[in-house]
Amino acid sequence: MKCETVQNLLDDYVDGLLIGEEPEMVARHLASCPDCARLANNLREMLQNAKGLSRHIEPRRDLWPAILEQIENEPKRRVFRTVRLGVLAVAAAVLAILAGSLLMRGLPRPGETVLTAVEAPVRLQQEVLVVEAEYQRARRELVAAMDQLPHRLAPETRTVIDQNLAVIDGAIQEIRTSLEKDPENVFLFDMLVAEQDSSLQLLGLEEAITSNTW
Amino acid sequence: MKRKVLWGILLLAVLAVVLGRTPIAAAAAQKSIDETRAVKPDGVVQISNVAGSVRVVSWEKPEVHVSGGLEKNVERVDFEVRDGRTSVQVVVREHAHGNSAAYLTVSAPSASSLEVDAVSASVNVEDAARPELERPMRPSVYVRSVSGDVEINVWASAVELKSVSGGVSFSGAAETFDAQTVSGNIQCAGAHSADVRTISGDIEVANADSVKARSTSGDFIGSNIGRNAEASSISGDVEMGVASINRVSARTVSGHIGLEGPLAPAGRVTASTQSGEVEVGFPPEVSAEFDINTVSGDVRTGFGFKSSGVNHSLDFALGSGDGYVRISTTSGNISINRL
């Protein structure tokens, strides 16, 4: 990726607004380009400093009457300069508002860094292990509940649930097989975590049936 | 004569078996319900049913009306109103699995939120045709189902559907549409923003401004998507038509990626697959920087560039180059067509 392209993406990158493989592409470039990495860090610093800005600034005294009098008494040739200063003031206010609005977007906390393309697979491996353990536990509990309380489910419903548990298992295996061929593919890790996470939610739905807690 | 009587009994027995397993049983069910309660027009209506069907229709009365047939193992229907929440719950005799269907039609105020839980019952929610700005949208429609199909045609702020194997289908208008299935297919037409996930089902989304779709082996088809789309699949195909591409991302491992649409100023497209093919189409006036990479696939463009061989990339700019298009494959071919 060219530096110019990456620099155009830095705002969205720092805000966490990039989608698909864009974050990975930018992270990979920053890992190998000190200039762009410095720009990214400067941007994060600026946004971090903006957090400390006051949300409201009250003037120490009301300056407006004096300003208005000056505007009305200004010779016409200086109108452009007054207008230009006004535009700059508006621009500065807009910048302050934008910086303030960025506070709502979950900026990186002090000391928190965005993962590089090298670090991402390691972190995701850890995340996969955690989510997988949770998924396997929930799956065991669901199957145990269905086995111990067969009267809670119609046989055809039990069949549907068993078939779909097999679909979930098959999907997870499909992703794992792809990961074995490409062990550092961040996209595949992301899919595996997302797959197990959404499977957990669906297991919750199936569990509600067995516990009759509609 | 005796033979005619025997044939008559046999025919009646066959009819009894057939009727017992068809919706006609709704009319021939041993019990029925036909009750009305006064409710707040903007309250919550919650319905749960194990088997049979749930059909919800809207009206403008501050009332909920429940009617329908109940099979013999349906013990009762609890129909209560409390603190703005109306509850309609089918209770089945414990340990009974057959003959436990309830075929319900529920009329609910058009401004109420709906929550429907079903196991094998089909769910159908139908709002009356709504002239623009005449009636408020429902705040939310939430449906959970295991194996019954879900069909929703509503005007709602938020629609959320969860199913295991039943197919889910939405039409109408919604600010947000969120759907999740294991093997059921998902269809959505009319949501402003759609977030859909399935494992093996197929996904079709039409007329959304933005969509996020994920499937492991199912296909994704997006038509007339407004501006933003993010689609990923392991082995399924991804096909999208976008009205004005702002941010589009498509990722698969072995599926095919197809994308068409004009690129908005500073619009971005990223598409990657390992063994699948990528085919994108842009109008002749497209303005973007193109970053194309493949290990062993061929690259063809309708803009006068091509490349082949091993480990090759193709970088070029069209127009003022303010947009950005990045396509990468391992072995899949890449085609960039002029529309």
Number of helices of chain A: 8
Report Rg of chain B: 26 Å
Strand content of chain B: over 45%
Poorly predicted parts of chain B: 16-28
The protein's oligomeric status is heterodimer
State the share of residues found in helices of chain B, binned by percent: under 10%
SS-based class of chain B: mainly beta
Order of helices and strands of chain B: HHEEEEEEEEEEEEEEEEEEEEEEEEEEEE
What do you see in this structure?
The complex is a heterodimer of chains A (214) and B (339). Chain A is mainly alpha-helical and 214 residues long. Chain A has 2 domains: 1-113, no CATH class; 119-210. Chain A contains 8 helices and no strands. In chain A, helix 6 packs parallel to helix 8 (186-210). The longest helix of chain A is centred in the middle third of the chain and has 30 residues, at 119-148. Helices cover 7% and strands 60% of the residues of chain B. Chain B is built from 2 helices and 28 strands. Chain B has helices at 2-20, 24-28, and strands spanning 31-38, 44-49, 51-59, 63-70, 74-82, 85-92, 101-109, 113-118, 122-126, 138-145, 150-163, 168-181, 186-198, 203-206, 210-215, 220-225, 228-233, 238-242, 245-252, 257-260, 263-273, 278-282, 288-294, 299-301, 306-307, 312-318, 323-329, 334-338. Residues 16-28 of chain B have low confidence and may be disordered. Chain A binds chain B through residues 1-2, 5, 8, 19-22, 25, 151, 154-157, 160-161, 163-164, 167-168, 170-171, 174-175, 178, 182, 187-188, 191, 194-195, 198-199, 201-202, 205-206, 208-209, 214, and chain B through 48, 50-51, 89, 94-95, 97-98, 100, 117, 119-120, 144, 146-147, 162, 164-165, 180, 182-183, 197, 199-200, 214, 216-217, 228, 230, 232, 234-235, 247, 249-251, 253, 266, 268, 270, 272, 274, 289, 291, 324, 326.
